Amino acid sequence: MEETLDSAVKILSQWQSSSNDSGSFDDCPKPSLFERHGRDEVLEFIAAAKALHSAIQKLITSDSASSKKLASAQNLLRATMKRLSREFFSLLKANKDHLYPHAYSRSDSLSDDESTGSSTYGSTDGLSLLGENNNGNGVGVGVEEVSSAMDDLKLIADCMMSTGYGKKCLKIYRITRRSIVEESILHLGARKIKKSRIQKMDGEKIQMKMNKWLKVARFAVKQIFLGEKILCDHLFSSSYALPPMQETCFAEVCKDSALILFKIPGKLAKHSKKSPDMAYRFLDLYDGISDLSLDIDLIFCSDLTAPVRSGVKLSINRIADGVRSILSEFESHVQKDASKVVVPGGGVYPLARYVMDYLTSLMNHTGALDKILDESHGNLQSCLPENYFDDGMTASPIALWLAWQILLLLCKVDAKSELYKDGALSYLFLANNLQYVLSRVSGSKLESMLGETWVPKHKAKVMQYAVNYEKAGWDKIISVFPKDHMANMPLDKVRECFKKFNAEFEDEYNKQIDWFVLDPTLRDEIKSSLTKQVMERYRYVYDKYMPLLKKHREKGVIQTVIKFTPEEVENYMSDLLDGPDTDEVVPLTGEETGQPGVEATGVQRRRKRIRQLVRHLRVL
């Protein structure tokens, strides 16, 4: 023991005599033990300190120990620990920017004023724990240097823990690292934000805050807090330090900064102005913080950091509440729509476009919406028609909600159809709008949500609306001629049929010339069906009775009775349902346009045929 004590005193006294122990912790011992000496010398110093402590413990229990010698050894140990404390503080401070890579860019901060000041911190892109970083002076710090600094700190921590100075070591660490973490989070712009300030922000400002928070939070979790966790566990993982000590140390360093950071999204969600388009921003935020929560739970896993986990859950719940509030307002907007505007030509109602655009955009967040709507919209199943979904299909909360929104929309479309005075146009309006909804559902995530049978069921409804349109608009024209082709009619009856057809056809053509079917496939199907029904009877009667009428020609009778050849009727019908927005171009003569060589749109072409139709019917 005596030899061990003398050897330790000799080594430590040499270092003690050359150090500057009169200064504050801001003064690094000169010469620094870890900067100017080799690893062997450092290990020798640490071993001597531990040996001195061990010798003191034996002297205390020894009956023959000299009190003077014991006091001298204890004084030397205190001076040695004081030196190590300063070395520990100096290493922590000197390596504050690269014990883990927590450098950042001003452009990534949450602060409002990004144009003032400058930062020596590097970019967050491409950083990884203990990877290459910038020390603030443009000098690269590599993995080996970072590892060396951490090893030196651990040597000191282990030594101070084993010699009874663990509390002092932990105090230095907590105070130093806490200030570093707080400074880092503050520079990133994470600071307490007032309710009144949030309420004054517009949607664009809120979105900017949310986007920046996500970027900052990812970096803080993956780099700062994870780095502190690893650093703390690394330094205090020896047998001298119990696990609770590590957790206590980490909690005191990071808890307050983490609480400030993780409460921000909840405050933004709770106090910002709600509007339908904010749902996308809230859902992005919900996805982002939910993804981070897994890492947060692992990093802040102890009872001491439970408030951090609770703060994250509170923010997630507030964001979810915000989304539910926005979706509820959206649904209310659809239900309260009381516009009496009649869409010209039976086109797509603006509300249908708005609702389907909105629902389609929400499909980027189906996972989040399923969680958010899980409890609040569970009763929607009873509101939907029986067998609305595929047999045996268990509808998810988002599927139920989507189906309900589309059903509300279609109910509104049904109500709007009653604003049309013409029954045929009313059915055309229904067909157009349901077909538009189908076009947005088919082949999208909406279809997978609603099930395989949803689209076929509603396609059948579209076709029924088309049939109803044909009956309401064209039955009276088709029924002019007898169903029985073989039955013979007297000439007077023939003339009456043609005159009635001319009048009815003119009236319906003039009325329907500006109606349209938006979907080209549906339009072609309706046109084909109509043309077939009309031309089948008209051509048969025309071919059968035209020769007979010629035999009984009277002046002007044929022109008055038969105004159109079958080809002309077919041409007129081909103009229908194209609507006023067609791109088709046909040449007109100079006499008709007033300008030789001018091309006319499909609208002009149809107007030309209307004039021709009127001239036909005026020749009596």
From TrEMBL:
A GO MF label: phosphatidylinositol-4,5-bisphosphate binding
A biological-process GO annotation: protein transport
Endpoints of the signal sequence: none
Sorted UniProt keywords: Exocytosis, Protein transport, Transport
Domain Exocyst complex subunit Exo70 C-terminal: 212-575
Membrane-spanning residues: none
Record's GO cellular component terms: exocyst
UniProt record similarity statement: Belongs to the EXO70 family.
Function in brief: Component of the exocyst complex.
Name of the protein: Exocyst subunit Exo70 family protein
